[in-house]
Amino acid sequence: ILQEAGVACLSGTAFGDYGEGYLRFSVANSLENLNKALDRIQQWTVKNL
Question: In terms of residue numbers, what domain contains 33?
Fold first, then answer.
């Protein structure tokens, strides 16, 4: 997702076994940047999933 949409994420398992099947995103940013990231993620999922 980083290379194609410009949004960084981590595997949920980076934080333990309960993260299996999840992605982790940091929300420590401005609301404007979070909305941009969500738009990019949505566009990426439509294209790739």
Answer: 2-48
CA dist 45 to 1, 18, 28, 37, Å? 9, 23, 22, 12
For residue 39, which phi and psi values (nearest 5 degrees)?
-60, -45
In whole angstroms, give the CA distance from residue 16 to residue 35: 27
Instruction: Quote the CA–CA distance of 19 and 9 in Å, as a whole number.
Output: 13
Model confidence band, residue 42 (pLDDT cutoffs 50, 70, 90): very high
Which tokens sit at 2? 């980083």
pTM here?
Answer: 0.81
Q: Give the count of domains, the chain.
A: 1
How far apart CA 32 and CA 21 sit, in angstroms, is 27
